[in-house]
Amino acid sequence: MCSDLDVGKNYFHLFSLVEYALKANGYCKLNGDIVIGVDWFNFINDNPNIFEFASINDGIISASIQFLLDAPPKVQQMTTANGNTFLRYVDMDLPTTTSNSHKISRYIRQVRNNLFHGGKYRGEVFLDPARSHDLIMHCTVLLQYLVEYDNDVAEAFRGCFSA
Q1: pTM score, whole prediction
Q2: Three-state SS string across the chain, please?
Q3: Tens-place pLDDT, residues 76-93
């Protein structure tokens, strides 16, 4: 998603630690008793104001929230034209009733998906490396904020570094 490898690696690392901390606090998607993912939806439901403007007093956090709300990441779409199939990036289609906190958590995960699953490295779909860099940096700020917002998540997160 961006040419700055360290920015991407740092984002992956932080994202994986945050997801560990969420799962350690019971925010797990299950298939029977097998953990198949992180339950971001219920974490946000339990912390509904985490990314709402009314609860944010920090200018850096507010700027990151506003950036994502104004210019959210896109999603890949398979498209066929003139007999050729190709990938393109399109706007996300979230319900208008979705809260800002749910939108932001979805955007943070989409940036991770776009970065991890690739496809933004060819000139046809990756025209703005500065935007990708900004998306990653703003999501990094918000992941760091998320960790400090919830004491239990913060404790599990810090536990990753003590052993």
Answers
A1: 0.86
A2: CCCCHHHHHHHHHHHHHHHHHHHHCCCEEEECCEEEEECHHHHHHHCCCCCCHHHCCCHHHHHHHHHHHHCCCCEEEEEEECCEEEEEEECCCCCCCCCHHHHHHHHHHHHHHHHHHCCCCCCCCCCCHHHHHHHHHHHHHHHHHHHHHCHHHHHHHHHCCCC
A3: 888 888 888 877 888 888
